[in-house]
Fold each of these.
Amino acid sequence: MPRSAATKPKGEAEAQRQRKNRRARVPATAHPATMPTLIDDASAGTPLAALQAVDWNSAHAALDASGYALLPALLSAEACRAVAAFYLHPEHFRSRVVMARHGFGRGEYQYFGYPLPPLVDALRTAAYARLAPLANCWNEAMGIDVRYPPTHADFLARCHAAGQVRPTPLLLRYQAGDYNCLHQDLYGEHVFPLQLAVLLSSPGIDFTGGEFVLTEQRPRLQSRAEVVPLGQGDAVVFAVRQRPVRGVRGYFRANLRHGVSRLHSGCRHTLGIIFHDAAP
């Protein structure tokens, strides 16, 4: 005789409850309108709280020493899934790029349109304020006259006045066999010298391979490559184009490029936050 809901054994009822809980979680393909609100204030457990908790003196020291700094656990697993879910909803983006068509590698990415999702906009604004002082120190050391204002709104006004009006934050998607060639994200005359990338997928679970790679070229020396290990929700801040390196006769400019090694299996999503906007 079939068992009714009222007579289910305790173990079966518990299993059903767990299945319901799993279905209640945000799936990778959920529409953004159905996602939990991504809080963009500094409440405990939010991305902005994680940014505030960063030891920025240590982060700046790492950037000075190596051209990059890790920001562990910037986004929760839930926030990573929510941001990655935007990818399947083109109404949130201004353009889509298939990398193989342009010789950029394999894989694809989409640029968000304005207005940006609240979490992306909040991270962009807050991270800029933390990085602008270091950007000014770098330019001074390299003998570059450009200085960056303390707020991102003022820097964007500078970009827009020069015709750089297209937003540059983007979502990247790699599948098995995909990779991103070494490159620099330059979109016009005005370039903020640092950018941020957040890994939204879980290495070893969602994908294998697909490491974040940086190379640095110093004058009269061979290039140095570095693989930056990232977990889900980890962010890396790194130089867009160049950084100052102290030599025996003062500072010189080291050129950097970044990319992603070939994915062996699965699917990898990344959020890229670039602080300058793009020219048409």
Amino acid sequence: MPVIAYQSFNANSSTTHGLASMWQQPLTRAAARRVAGAGHQALVLPSLDSEFTLPVEGPAHLRPIQAQAGAPTQVAFGTQIALIYQNIFRAIGTMPDLLVCGELDVSNADFAGLRQSSGLLANVTGNAKACQCFTAFAQAGVAGQIKLLAEGLGFVIYSINGLSVLFVHVPNAIATNAAKVRDFYAQLNNHLVTIGSGPIDLVIGDTNQSSSNFTQNALPQGFANAHTSTVVSPFDNWNVKQGGTNSAGSKMFDVAVYNTTTINLEAGPVYLSQSSGAVTVTDHCGLAVKVSRKVG
């Protein structure tokens, strides 16, 4: 029963994929203004920069959320990733087996430290533009069960324990066009079937559209949205309820949609804020689900 997570960062279209491409981007600043203005506070768990997947005991510290400031550093982004593991462990009871981060390229020298976290293997896929990259983090113990099936503009597909998981950052050019999005998913599903790895079991990521049911409706019959509430309560915030996962907290850009004919939703989705370490480093909430293959 793998735990699968996704976190979208906020990078620009630069062909240089370093810290500068992700630092103080307009939508990240907008998210920071919103949460600071609303008085949001982060429940910051203890974590280790050198070993993300090691559960760390200790209470959460309640801290006011701040905006990025000063020169760009790897630490803020590394803390967000480290805390994804700690928060999901506390929420679900298991560390993520596979975490994909959109708009992040850890092959760049600026992120060398993120590649050195013990217990994790990193794989980068994507486009020349920083905003179209994906980095996958896999626990070393399960890396042998994970296989890259396909990659392209706006997506990467991995197999984990025989499940085909489609991680998306749907291109803005098609994101709100229902017909084009249906074709996007249909082509990917047909490719998986052709190579013997289909159909799609789970779609998770940044869909770049506002309706929580848009992705479910763009997929074949039998898919369901893992999040059925109209409210998002980030697990790592204190007493926060909002209507979405984007910078304004009003639109459901980030979703998990699963194939009810092939898998069971065992836990989640667990949503995390843009500010797990009390510094807003992105414009999107992260999320995680635990799923299992249906038997029979």
Amino acid sequence: MQILQGMGGTITVFAGQDAQYAKEGFGGNVSGQLNLVTYAGATDVYNEMDYSGATTVKYGGRLHIYGSVPNTSNVTIEDGGLLNGVGTIGSRNSTTYIQTGGTIESGYAANPWDDLKIGGNLTVDGISDFTRTTSQHGGLIKVGGDLTLKGEVLAHSSFDYVGSGVRTLYLYEGTVQTGDKLSLNVYGTPQGGTDSFQIGHHQVNLVEANSTDNLSFWNGTHMTPTNQVEGGSGVWKQDDTAQTNWTNAAGTESAPWAAGSYAIFQHSTASSPENGAITVAGTVDVGGMQFTPAHNGNDTQSYYLIP
């Protein structure tokens, strides 16, 4: 195993003449008070790198994390730089900053389904690219601290695969803030504002609905809006005595079940049956159903019932 130790220096990685295809790989261990700066070309990190300095990706640089960089103090992806992979980067107290023009992406070309983990806080002024993930599971970016999301989110539509539903993009352990410049682009088409995002319960989700589907979100025992979808136990009815325990993606409405709607169950419902049970009283007409994953490490896939 290669071991490189430092006390306050900087490792600078250059790609060479053919920057598009040039690549440098680290399969050993780099430790100590070192900074890592990568320029044009790809830098692959395998195994674990223990250095405690800052990490910077310059214009044209691509940093692929397959292992872990758990102690780097801060990560900066500059304009034209890229961070992706299926490993972990950043200490608990660090901030990963994706500058305007920079990109963060979960997975990589050969494995777009696994997750990229940010150890500390994440601020995105640039691009969040989820276009490699076409299904409604996997390919997440998990943030160990606070998430500030202000850039452009790129995604593919899931209509060709599973139709309407909710797809998780980000999980965050701390708080979340979104800026006025947050935007969504699906298949190259701007979607406008934050209308297609669902934010709450430590998740940032993409909500997609076919033109014929009326999405209705299960809200358990909550009969009035709480500004987020709560889920939980409850009774599902369709007659005149039905409770107003259905809401919209933002949790800002309450209504009884509307026949033929597309039912979405999130959080402590069917995806986590130990936290809630749903009782169906009588006959209900359903246009389709989605049970979203609990994201508890055991279940990361959505389940669908589509007539």
Amino acid sequence: MSSLSRRAFLMGASMTGLGLSLASCITDSASIKPVVVASSDPATLPMPADGRPTDAISQPVQPLNPDGTYDYKTIYGQMTDGKFIVPAVDTKRIGAEFLRAEVDYPTEQPAGTVIVDAKAHYLYYILGDGRAMRYGVGVGKQGFGWSGTAQVHFKREWPDWYPPKEMIARRPDLRPTLSKLQSGIGMQGGPRNPITGRAMYLWQDNKDTLFRIHGTNEPYSIGHNASSGCIRMIVQDAIDLYQRVPLGGRVVVLGPGQASA
């Protein structure tokens, strides 16, 4: 297991259980519960050592045009997810290099690994045989604050958002959108919530790294740095990745100077 590189990790704070209110990635782990999806063959899925159930995963088929190119109008079109509608994304406003695509990506990491290259604004899901599904990402300031190898400890669909008190003080315009929720003052999960449709929470050595991979309702920030959050994805991409990555899935976050894993 790689050593922590987060500067003054947690500033010496003790992390016990899930009660810590997180300023990093503008969320709160106190409300996180494992998402469990019934598997057609549970025996084929790995079971973490601590006994948490593992969710079923799949490899979504990518819509193609008749000429074999990606049908981005469908991939990033409006979709219904549970009780929410995910709006369509104007892909012309996002660099073509940051749209979802299967690419060559030689790596020693096994298939199923997620590799985050924050500097290049890419996230790779390793398919094996030198191939990967590549997603463009936006990177908040917390996204540059940690690197190493971790596991997906929790997954949430449309999670609540708990902005830190400092943000509420700095952004009084947020107050009308917040209410008292189960873990404090926050915003219920939904399209207006900055985390939007999906979030994956990374832990290392049974400790929360405070590093998150999550959706965003600011899709045109993809390919750029942002003032807050960790690793932002277009909601349609976050949903696609979420289906691929199981609880306990391996995630490698590249550090400064690392071009690959």
